[in-house]
């Protein structure tokens, strides 16, 4: 008996075999046979085709894994082959590869903890103030209220606004609603050059909190608050320069 015939007689009931064979093979199965009858002899090709049709029925595939499960199994198989290939090429084998992976994860975690969320560059349309104008004193009061509650992001924002508003109130900066923190720091640095670097740092802290997705700290708030107090006591260089050059101008005119 051929291999296909054995497969067919094993997988299919005798009555089912009679219905699957073509009309030319019905002479082989003229009647139902008992268990004592000799085994059936079925040509290879009809047996293979009959087995294919029978095994393609839905009832034989009810417990087959889903498409998603097959894709997931293929992925894990690919990942396992990749891991095995990498461990073979790594000194120390699998243990060496695990140590390298853990080291990379540790470095990335340290960078994330140290640098925080990657900073996004603020857009040119990001303004320092909102639509409702408030005085420097109002911004300072709001900043102190946020600081008292430990809301350092809002405290930094309000203190930077208070700093810039105070410079506008002293006419050291023109009142310009669309001004950004970077622009305010650059303009204020020309009138107060001794505080240029601190003004830039304060503007960067404001941008990091407002547009960069980073969290402010108590230290950053107190740094901006101290700068705000120092600027209140600082005289602009422009006024001093004018006062120093006035006598020279009068002296030149007298000569």
User: Helical stretch count?
Assistant: 11
Q: What is the averaged pLDDT score?
A: 74
Q: Secondary-structure element sequence?
A: HHHHHHHHHHH
Overall helicity = 55-70%
Span from first to last CA? Answer: 134 Å
**Ranges with pLDDT <50 over ≥5 residues?**
10-32, 119-126, 239-255
User: What structural category arises from helix and sheet content?
Assistant: mainly alpha
Report the count of strand segments.
Answer: 0
Please report which band the strand proportion falls in: under 5%, 5-15%, 15-25%, 25-35%, 35-45% or over 45%: under 5%
Write down the overall geometry.
elongated
Q: Please state the CA-atom Rg, rounded to the nearest Å.
A: 42 Å
Largest sheet: none
Overall description:
The protein is mostly helical and 255 residues long. Helix content is 65%, strand content 0%. It has eleven helices and no strands. The chain has helices at residues 3-11, 14-20, 44-55, 67-89, 93-115, 136-148, 152-169, 181-191, 196-210, 218-233, 237-254. Helix 7 crosses helix 8 and helix 9 (196-210) packs across helix 10 (218-233). The chain is elongated and about 115 Å long. Mean pLDDT is 74; it is low at 10-32, 119-126 and 239-255.
């Amino acid at each position: 008996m051929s291999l296909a015939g054995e497969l067919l007689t094993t997988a299919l009931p005798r009555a089912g075999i009679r219905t699957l064979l073509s009309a030319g093979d019905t002479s082989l199965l003229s009647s139902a046979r008992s268990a004592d009858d000799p085994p059936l002899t079925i040509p290879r090709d009809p047996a293979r085709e009959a087995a294919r049709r029978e095994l393609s029925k839905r009832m034989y595939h009810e417990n087959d894994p889903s498409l998603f499960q097959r894709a997931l199994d293929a992925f894990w198989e690919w990942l396992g082959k990749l891991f095995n290939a990498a461990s073979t090429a790594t000194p120390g084998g699998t243990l060496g590869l695990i140590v390298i992976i853990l080291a990379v994860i540790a470095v990335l975690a340290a960078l994330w903890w140290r640098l925080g969320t990657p900073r996004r560059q603020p857009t040119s349309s990001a303004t320092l103030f909102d639509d409702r104008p408030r005085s420097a004193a109002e911004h300072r009061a709001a900043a102190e209220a946020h600081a008292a509650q430990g809301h350092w992001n809002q405290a930094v924002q309000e203190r930077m606004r208070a700093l810039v508003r105070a410079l506008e109130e002293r006419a050291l900066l023109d009142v310009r609603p669309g001004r950004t923190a970077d622009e305010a720091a650059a303009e204020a640095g020309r009138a107060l050059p001794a505080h240029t670097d601190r003004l830039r740092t304060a503007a960067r802290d404001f941008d990091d909190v407002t547009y960069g997705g980073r969290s402010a700290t108590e230290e950053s708030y107190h740094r901006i608050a101290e700068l705000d107090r120092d600027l209140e006591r600082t005289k602009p260089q422009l006024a001093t320069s004018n006062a120093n050059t006035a006598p020279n101008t009068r002296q030149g005119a007298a000569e």
